[in-house]
Structure formats: structure tokens, C-alpha cells
């Protein structure tokens, strides 16, 4: 059983602040954006509901929000900036690395095609305007497979911005342990964002984080929504949803439908994730907290109800050891294999 006297999970950040060990990911609230006709967002959004959800999260004690300049072609940052203006106690992490047109909502390429230093400076200035902040707490490189030496150019530019107080710290959104390890010794490099959930435990990247004292920001902690239990095997998603695509990195949905194998694995462990009255989503977050003290999951949201459910996981804390052990026995997780985008 869960120890009801234990405090809810917290994590110490790079600047010494302690925050609840749950952030919120802001991809979905950015709304539609595209690469040509290919949808890259989660469909239409209601900005008023998004702002209400963000403010509800703050009222419930959440102090970490993760976004990216490209989400909604700038719109996610704008919404977050409106909702959090004046909340200096809240940490905002954003990402850069992609070019986009806010007017047409089109992704138009990677910053590696230009002068990286100038691209970084321009991207940081634009994010500061949209987020209504003079200083960005955490800036992450949003190019998963960028060459290690080119990434160094990005971090060199960010070092200059740290020196003038424009950026607090930086990290890399990458699923490649060797990329994270290559720059982990830099003074400003504090976090790696990567795919991690109970279907994929990211042992190699976790080892890098443990070795270098990095924070593991867990993207897709709910497997793009599959671990909420709201999608049945074979259920079709709307054509304007990013999960309707067939990207190679998209494991849990193919051709707009839940992959049956993952749905079957979830059913095997449903009773373990819902121990002590948790919802499935709360159990999936609790699994991440029990996996490593460095995990900081950032589930997405589009409503106040989703925020309340996710934040409710903090009250129950990590899954108990016996549930963790039984999940490992039943999940039938394949070997980690070679690093790849997730």
C-alpha cells in the first residue's frame, strides 16, 4: 500500500529550487500546424480552456511547464505567456531548432541550414517575446539527431546568453545517449528530454543522467495518450491529429489507430497501475517516479479536467515496489535495442 504520510514527489532543479516532480507539456495547446498537408499538432484548441487549465495547474502547485517555439508555430508559447505573465515562481522550459511561419502555420525546416549562432539568438529573442519573459529558465535543443559538433555550436551560443542573463540553463531533447553524454559536462547543460514511459524505460539515457547528474524530462510519459485508457485498440483518430501520421518514431499509433500490441500490454497491467485508487494515467506517472529519482514527466493536456487528473497523481506518489516488480514480470517489454528517435 502507499505510505500516506510520505510527501509528494519533488525534484531539485539546477538553480536549487525544489518543485513538484510533475511538469505539464504544452505541445497540444499550440493547436494545428503542418508540414505541407501533414498535421503536426493535436487538432483544434480552445485558448480560454488552455489558459484556465494552466492557471488551475499553478493553483494546484505545478511549477514546471515545457513547450517549444514550433508548437502551433509559436502559438503554444503565446498562450503560455498570457497565462503565466507575472508568475516569476514558475519555471518555463522551451525548445528551439525549427523554423516555421506563424502566419501559415507551416514548419519550414531546421535551423542547421543557417548560421547556428544567429539562428539561436533570433529564436531566443522570439521566444522571450511570445512568453513575455526577459529571461528563459531552460532552453533545449529540439533537433534529436543533430551532429554532436553542430550541437556544440548551439550550446556555445547559449553559453553566451547565460553569461548575459538571458538564459538560465540549457539541455537537449534527444533520444541518443551518446549525444547527451557528449555535452553533459558543460556547466550550463542540466537536462535531457527524451521519450520514456512504462513501455520504454530508456535505461541507457537514464544511466547517462545518473552519471552526470542531469534531470530526465520525460516526454510522452502517457504514450501519446494511450496510457490514459481512452483509446481502444483499432480506434481511429481524426485526420488532423499528429497521431494519424505514420512517422517512424511514432510507436503507439499507426495510421491513426492504436497499435494492438501496446493495447494488449496495457490490459495485462491495468490492475497494477490502478492500485490505491489511481487512474491509469496516474499509475503511469507513478511508474516513472518509482523508476528513477531524476524523472520529471511532462504529460500533455487540453482541459482543466486533464490537469486535475494528472496533478492528482502527486497525492499518491510513486508505485509501490511490489507493483513495479509485477509490472516488469507481465509487461513483456522488448530489449532496448539501438538508440533511435522516439
Main-sheet strand order equals 3-6-7-10-11-12-13-16
Give the biggest beta sheet: 8 strands, parallel
Detail the poorly predicted runs: 1-5
The computed structural class is: alpha/beta
- Ends apart, CA distance between termini: 33 Å
By CATH, the architecture is named Alpha-Beta Barrel
Series of H and E elements: EEEEEHEHEEEHEHEHEHEEEHHEHH
CATH fold description: TIM Barrel
In CATH terms, the superfamily is NADP-dependent oxidoreductase domain
Overall pLDDT metric? 95
> Can you tell me the number of structural domains?
1
Number of continuous helical runs: 10
Extended strand count: 16
GO cellular component, one term: cytosol
InterPro entries: AKR_Detox_Biosynth (IPR050523), NAD(P)_OxRdtase_dom_sf (IPR036812), NADP_OxRdtase_dom (IPR023210)
GO molecular function: oxidoreductase activity
Keywords: Oxidoreductase
Give the structure's gist in a few sentences.
It contains ten helices and 16 strands. It is α/β, with parallel strands linked by helices and 342 residues long.
Describe this structure in words.
The structure is a single chain. The chain is α/β, with parallel strands linked by helices. It has one domain (12-330): NADP-dependent oxidoreductase domain (TIM Barrel, Alpha-Beta Barrel), CATH 3.20.20.100. It is 35% helix and 18% strand. The protein has ten helices and 16 strands. It has helices spanning 47-59, 75-84, 116-131, 148-163, 177-183, 203-212, 260-273, 280-291, 304-316, 321-330, and strands at residues 10-12, 18-20, 24-25, 34-35, 38-39, 64-66, 91-96, 98-101, 106-110, 136-141, 167-173, 189-195, 215-219, 253-254, 257-258, 295-297. The strands form five sheets. It has an eight-stranded parallel beta sheet. Strands 1-2 form a two-stranded antiparallel sheet. It has a two-stranded antiparallel ribbon with strand order 4-5. The longest helix has 16 residues, at 116-131.
Amino acid at each position: 500500500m502507499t505510505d500516506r504520510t510520505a510527501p509528494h514527489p519533488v525534484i531539485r532543479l539546477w538553480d536549487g529550487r525544489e518543485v513538484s516532480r510533475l511538469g505539464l507539456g504544452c505541445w497540444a495547446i499550440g493547436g494545428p500546424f503542418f508540414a505541407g498537408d501533414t498535421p503536426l499538432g493535436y487538432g483544434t484548441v480552445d485558448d480560454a480552456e488552455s489558459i484556465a487549465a494552466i492557471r488551475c495547474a499553478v493553483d494546484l502547485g505545478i511549477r514546471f511547464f515545457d513547450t517549444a517555439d514550433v508548437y502551433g508555430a509559436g502559438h503554444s508559447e503565446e498562450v503560455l505567456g498570457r497565462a503565466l505573465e507575472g508568475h516569476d515562481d514558475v519555471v518555463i522550459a522551451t525548445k528551439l531548432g525549427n523554423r516555421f511561419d506563424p502566419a501559415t502555420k507551416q514548419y519550414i525546416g531546421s535551423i542547421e541550414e543557417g548560421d547556428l549562432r544567429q539562428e539561436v539568438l533570433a529564436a531566443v529573442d522570439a521566444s522571450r517575446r511570445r512568453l513575455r519573459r526577459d529571461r528563459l529558465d531552460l532552453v533545449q535543443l529540439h533537433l534529436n539527431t543533430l551532429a554532436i559538433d553542430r550541437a556544440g555550436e548551439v550550446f556555445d551560443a547559449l553559453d553566451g546568453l547565460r553569461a548575459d542573463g538571458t538564459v538560465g540553463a540549457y539541455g537537449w531533447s534527444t533520444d541518443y545517449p551518446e549525444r547527451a553524454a557528449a555535452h553533459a559536462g558543460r556547466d550550463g547543460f542540466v537536462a535531457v528530454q527524451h521519450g520514456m514511459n512504462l513501455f520504454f524505460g530508456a535505461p541507457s539515457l537514464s544511466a547517462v543522467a545518473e552519471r552526470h547528474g542531469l534531470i530526465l524530462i520525460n516526454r510522452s510519459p502517457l504514450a501519446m495518450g494511450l496510457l490514459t485508457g481512452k483509446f481502444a485498440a483499432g480506434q481511429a483518430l481524426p485526420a488532423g491529429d499528429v497521431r494519424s501520421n505514420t512517422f517512424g518514431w511514432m510507436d503507439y499509433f499507426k495510421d491513426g489507430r492504436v497499435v494492438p500490441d501496446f493495447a494488449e500490454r496495457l490490459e495485462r497491467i491495468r490492475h497494477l497501475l490502478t492500485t490505491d485508487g489511481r487512474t491509469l494515467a496516474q499509475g503511469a506517472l507513478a511508474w516513472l517516479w518509482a523508476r528513477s529519482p531524476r524523472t520529471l514527466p511532462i504529460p500533455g493536456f487540453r482541459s482543466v479536467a486533464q490537469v486535475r487528473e494528472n496533478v492528482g497523481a502527486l497525492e499518491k506518489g510513486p508505485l509501490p515496489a511490489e507493483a513495479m516488480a509485477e509490472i516488469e514480470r507481465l509487461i513483456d517489454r522488448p530489449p532496448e535495442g539501438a538508440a533511435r528517435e522516439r
